[in-house]
C-alpha cells in the first residue's frame, strides 16, 4: 500500500510538471499579423536609429533599473527599445515601430526572447548574419554582448495560430508548437530574436529565429 501511494505521488508530480510545460511552452507568438493583440501606435523611434552609436542610444533609454532590458543594438542594423508583455498576454507583440517585445515565457526557460513584427522592426532581423554582435542594454546603462550563432526558419501549417504545427525548412521535420518552443527557447543564457516569414500575401506564413550566445 505504501509503495502504491509513493508511485501515485510520483505520477501526480510528473503529470503536473508535464501539464505546466504544455501550458507555458506551447505558444509561438504571431509576429506577422497585426490583427492579433493590436495596440495603437503611440510613438516611434527615429527611422535612422540604426545610425546611432551605442553610447548615444543607451543614454536615451536608461532609467536606472539594472534588472530590466531597455534596448537591443546591432551596429548599422538596428537600435530598438525593449518593452515588456502585459500580464497574462503571452502572445502580445508591440505594434510600435522601433520596439521589440520581451517574451516572458522564454525567461522561464533560461533564455531572453525578443519579438518584433516582420512588417515593423522584425524585418531588420533578416539582416543579421552568423558571427554578428548584438548588445543588450539594461536600465542602468550596463551592456551585455552576444554573438549570432545560428538562424532557423519554420513554416507554420496554420499561419495565424500560435499553437500551429511547424515544418523545419532545413530538413522538413514537423514539430509541435511545444517542441519548437523548447528547441528555440530552452537554452540557458541564450538570446533569441523572433519574427515572422512572409510568403506572398501571408505575413505569418512562417517563423524566423536568430539565436545568439553570450560573449564572455
Chain-wise SSE layout:
Layout: H1 2-24, H2 54-61, E1 69-74, E2 78-84, E3 99-103, H3 104-107, E4 112-115, E5 133-138, E6 143-156, E7 166-168, E8 174-175, H4 177-185, E9 191-199, E10 202-214
Parallel strand pairs: 2-3, 4-9
Antiparallel strand pairs: 1-2, 1-5, 3-4, 5-6, 6-7, 6-10, 7-8, 9-10
Question: Your description of this structure?
Answer:
The structure is a single chain. The chain is of the alpha+beta class and 216 residues long. The protein has a single domain, classed as Sortase, Chain: A (Beta Barrel), CATH 2.40.260. The chain is 20% helix and 32% strand. The chain has an eight-stranded mixed barrel.
Determine the structural class based on helices, strands and strand pairing: alpha+beta
Q: Compute the gyration radius: what is it?
A: 18 Å
The beta-strand count equals 10
Tell me the fraction of residues in β-strands, as a range. Answer: 25-35%
Largest sheet properties? 8 strands, mixed, barrel
Q: What's the CATH class label?
A: Mainly Beta
What is the helix/strand order? HHEEEHEEEEEHEE
Number of helices: 4
Basic shape: globular
State the CATH topology: Sortase, Chain: A
Uncertain residue segments: 1-24, 34-48
Helix content: 10-25%
Q: Termini distance?
A: 53 Å
Count of individual domains: 1
Mean pLDDT: 84
Spatial sequence of strands, sheet with the most strands:
1-2-3-4-9-10-6-5
The CATH architecture assignment turns out to be Beta Barrel
Brief summary:
With 216 residues, the chain is α+β, with helices and mostly antiparallel strands.
Amino acid at each position: 500500500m505504501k509503495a502504491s501511494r509513493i508511485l501515485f505521488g510520483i505520477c501526480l508530480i510528473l503529470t503536473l510538471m508535464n501539464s505546466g510545460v504544455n501550458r507555458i511552452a506551447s505558444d509561438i507568438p504571431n509576429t506577422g499579423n497585426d490583427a492579433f493583440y493590436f495596440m495603437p501606435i503611440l510613438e516611434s523611434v527615429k527611422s535612422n536609429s540604426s545610425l546611432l552609436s551605442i553610447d548615444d542610444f543607451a543614454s536615451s533609454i536608461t532609467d536606472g533599473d539594472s534588472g530590466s532590458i531597455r534596448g537591443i543594438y546591432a551596429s548599422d542594423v538596428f537600435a530598438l527599445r525593449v518593452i515588456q508583455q502585459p500580464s497574462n498576454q503571452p502572445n502580445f507583440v508591440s505594434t510600435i515601430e522601433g520596439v521589440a517585445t520581451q517574451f516572458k515565457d522564454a525567461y522561464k526557460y533560461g533564455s531572453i526572447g525578443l519579438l518584433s513584427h516582420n512588417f515593423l522592426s522584425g524585418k531588420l532581423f533578416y539582416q543579421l548574419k552568423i558571427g554578428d554582435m548584438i548588445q543588450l542594454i539594461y536600465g542602468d546603462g550596463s551592456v551585455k554582448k552576444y554573438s549570432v550563432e545560428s538562424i532557423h526558419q519554420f513554416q507554420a501549417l496554420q499561419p495565424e495560430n500560435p499553437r500551429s504545427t511547424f515544418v523545419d525548412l532545413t530538413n522538413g521535420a514537423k514539430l509541435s508548437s511545444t517542441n519548437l518552443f523548447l528547441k528555440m527557447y530552452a537554452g540557458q543564457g541564450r538570446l533569441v530574436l523572433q519574427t515572422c516569414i512572409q510568403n506572398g500575401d501571408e505575413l505569418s506564413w512562417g517563423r524566423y529565429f536568430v539565436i545568439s550566445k553570450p560573449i564572455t
